[in-house]
Amino acid sequence: MHIAITGASGLIGSALARALGDDGHTVLPLVRSASHDPGAVRWDPAAGTIDAAALEGVDAVVHLAGAGIGDKRWSPARKREIKESRTHGTDLLARTLAGLAAPPRVLVSGSAIGYYGDRGDEVVTELSAPGDDFLAGLVAAWEGAAAPAAEAGIRVVHARTGLVFAGEGGVLPRLVLPFRFFVGGRLGSGRQWMSWVSLADEVGALRFLVDRDDISGPVNLVAPEPVTNAEMARAIGQVLHRPAAVPVPAFGPRLVLGREMADELLFVSQRVRPAVLIDAGYPFTHTDVTAGLRAALGR
Length: 299
Prior knowledge:
With 299 residues, this protein is α/β, with parallel strands linked by helices. Helix content is 38%, strand content 18%. The chain is built from 11 helices and 14 strands. It has helices at residues 11-22, 76-98, 134-144, 147-151, 172-180, 199-211, 229-240, 251-257, 259-265, 275-280, 289-297, and strands at residues 2-6, 26-31, 41-44, 49-50, 60-63, 106-112, 123-124, 155-161, 163-165, 193-194, 196-198, 217-221, 227-228, 271-272. The chain has an 8-stranded mixed β-sheet, with helices on both faces. The chain has a two-stranded parallel ribbon with strand order 7-14. It has a two-stranded parallel ribbon with strand order 9-11. Helix 1 (11-22) packs across helix 6 and helix 7 packs across helix 11 (289-297).
């Protein structure tokens, strides 16, 4: 197949592009700057420009681009940048694909389990209602921006991703760092649920969703066994052979990141079930948090 990918240089996008290329598929990365890759497609979401002709006849598009949610402290300007990088880019891409003479058969558009907000011990699935915080509103607008593609008859999947376990990149290295210095432990009460997915299953599930013509709409890309933050801390300690006995009081991250950002990224409780993937028979590679951590950390 010919598959176009936005965010192809990022953590998930680069792993996906590599896996597709290894299996003989042709990957067309969408890039904002000049590239030596002859297959690269130029686009600039901020300027509203895209090389539509280069997308004619592609089989599928996987859209993963967007400003990092946890890269910088959330100021009003940063929150606006995070939102616009997703809604503007998704809208541009969806409208462009809808207008092609030979559109792709599927658009798998990146999303996040932040859609559900803070749910305590409640088990949520793709049918659950949205939350009411910043990330929930962001995801709702982000997914809504893909509507032009769906209205044009393109199958659209919203891949709601959780915490991705990868040794380099993403949030895991930051969670692991205190343990390497023997000062790791639970965050706050440790009772908040964390829904995670290995990078292998993130890539595998995205490919599964490209192939499955019977799946559309929101799909939770998480492992079937979420854990509490305290359980996560114990698992990290076990994998790294470090103690997990130094709890991090909530006021510390709130002071460094700001209360809103800390609460929505570190202390939010999301017990997410990947009901669509389970019902469709997706063969998870990693279902146990310790095995997922070992794979990510090379242990």
